[in-house]
Amino acid sequence: MHSFLYLLAIGAITTTGVLSEARSDTEERATSCSTANPNDVAAAKAAFTSAELVPDLIPSFDPDTTVQASYNGKQIDLGNTFSVTETLLQPSISFLAEPNYDASTTNYTIFLVDPDAPGPALPVLSDFLHLIIENAQPSCITTQSPIDLAPYMSLTPLSVAPHRYTILVYRQPPNYVAPVDPQYVPGVRNNFDLNGYVAEAGLEGPIAGNFFREGLSSTDCAITPNCTQDGTGYPTS
Ligand SMILES: *[C@@H]1O[C@H](CO)[C@@H](O)[C@H](O)[C@H]1NC(C)=O
Ligand SMILES: *[C@@H]1O[C@H](CO)[C@@H](O)[C@H](O)[C@H]1NC(C)=O
Asked: Which InterPro entries match (predicted)?
């Protein structure tokens, strides 16, 4: 815990040198935006590789900033474990500015997806979509108006084996319009094609990512239809 807070403090004092000579009011605001500690960016990249989220979920991951998220104050930290009762309500999510992009005029789309549904041994329902937020901006932009495009759907792992619940941030190009997608509605979130959506939408990135692990307890799995140890209990035909 102490070392995590220490890392946050280091991240917060690393500022954007590139924008430091900006003159207009808008750009002036951007100068106060922190960028991520390169060590934290490298740690996220390494964690995605060792957890095999590359290539299971995304073909590559070359972030240039970090995304912070928590459920009721408990931080998501590159693969730590949560329980179903801890994740009933939407997590708070924020991210630091990218170097070389004006935080005040760049919008981002944030996803929470599960590549391990209904269980990691046979992920026939993946990607399972839990949340899309559009028009998000780095946390230094206090006047932003993000929109819950696909409202949060709480997590329903059908295995004791943990799923890798993954948060990804993508940069929206100028004049971005999100695609029309029936899967924004809660209840029809299975087999969401994250990479297909990103390509269709023209999103750039991911520029940041984080993830946590969660499965059902053995006790809860025993009384949940189609839940098994490894997630092979869901009917596939
Ligand atoms: C960013 O999002 C805000 C709030 O929804 C919107 O008003 C603004 O036009 C967007 N900017 C760009 C560059 O897309
Ligand atoms: C569980 O599996 C059965 C068939 O084995 C199926 O009829 C049922 O819809 C499934 N229930 C859930 C909640 O997935």
From this structure: PEBP, PEBP-like_sf, PEBP_euk
